[in-house]
Structures are given as structure tokens and as C-alpha cells.
Amino acid sequence: MVVIMLIFFGACEKKTEAVSLTFLPDSSYTMRATDVSTLISDSGITRYRLLADEWLVFSKAAEPYWYFPSGMYVEKFDSLFQAEGSVRADTAYYYTDKGEWVLIGNVKIANLQDEKFESQKIYWDQKQKLIHSPEYIRIEQKDKIITGYGFESNEEMTRYRIFMPQGIFPVPKDRNDTIQTQQEQ
């Protein structure tokens, strides 16, 4: 009987192993949300709706940030909850300390004047209230399309300038003046 008990207790002996876990703040998220649909208020008034398939927060990173690996869509509302603008990107980062968004891949922005902006990368500095990009930009207006490399704008995308602009501009057929080329002058 004693032999059986010794065998039984020997088989039940617990073996413990030390497990080493490493937390890498720059590559370990502190929050993960999926199928995100959230409303964001400004001074107690709902102003934005954010939609994303996945939202990762890296709040312990050296430079804390949010990451939207599958993209995001944001709508801005007026006081009557009518959409007055939107932003869409394939991937997005928001650096919380700097207050800067980096929108990457098929970035599309629509403003109040129904102008549509398209680029592969756009930066939005909320502290300086400035949107800019060194990349190719395409702006579709009601009567023309303007393209160029690089631009900067106010946050509402209503006052902007394009660096190295290109475009096709309609010229009315009934103009009284003539357009002279350099050769004619």
C-alpha cells in the first residue's frame, strides 16, 4: 500500500516553469476594437462618425499612436447632422501626442464645396490646423480637374494651394479676347 501511495504522489508532483513575457510597447497594442462605429463630439455636439474594421491603440509606445490597418472612413456633420465632408483611407495612423493623422493609400476627401481630393498619402496636423502632402494630388471640382505634386490646405479643405500644378481648364468659346502664345508675341 505504501508503494502505491509513493507512486501516486510521485505522479502528481507539479513541475513549474518560469515563463518570460516581454512587453514591447512599440509593437504591442494596449487596445483592439473591431467593427468600429463611433460618434465623436466637439464641445458637446456630435460632429464626426468614424467607421473602421479594426482599430489598434499603442498607448505605451515611445510615440503613442492609433493604427487603422484596414482603413477608416470619417464623416463630418453640420449642426443638423447632414454630412458636410468625408475622409477615406486604406490605412491610417493617428499620433496622439502630436495630434497628427497620416492617411495612406487611396485617400479620398470630400469638402463642403463638393470638391473631391485624391492622393496616396496625406498628413493632417490638427495642432497647426494644416493638411498637406508631398505626393501626387488630384482635385476634382465642378468644372475642372486639377492635378499636381504636393499641396497644403486649411482643415476644411476650402483654401489650398497646389505645388507643381497641372490641369485641363475649360475656356468659354464666346470670349472676346484672344489667347496669344509666346510665338505670336
Summarize the model shown.
The protein has 185 residues and is mostly beta strands. Helices cover 5% and strands 52% of the residues.
Give structural notes.
There is one protein chain. By secondary structure, the protein is mostly beta strands. Helices cover 5% and strands 52% of the residues. It is built from 1 helix and 12 strands. It has a 6-stranded antiparallel beta barrel with strand order 2-3-6-7-5-4. Strand 2 (45-58) and strand 3 (65-68) form a beta hairpin. It starts with a helix and ends in a 17-residue tail after the last strand.
How large a portion of the residues is in β-strands, by DSSP E?
over 45%
- Globally, the shape reads elongated
- The N- and C-terminal alpha carbons lie at a distance of 118 Å
Low-pLDDT runs:
1-7, 181-185
By DSSP, the count of extended strands is 12
Radius of gyration: 27 Å
Main sheet: strand order: 2-3-6-7-5-4
Instruction: Assign a percent range to the helix content.
Output: under 10%
Give the SSE order as H and E letters: HEEEEEEEEEEEE
Structural class: mainly beta
Mean pLDDT across all amino acids: 84
By DSSP (H or I, 4+ residues per run), the number of helices equals: 1
Largest sheet: 6 strands, antiparallel, barrel
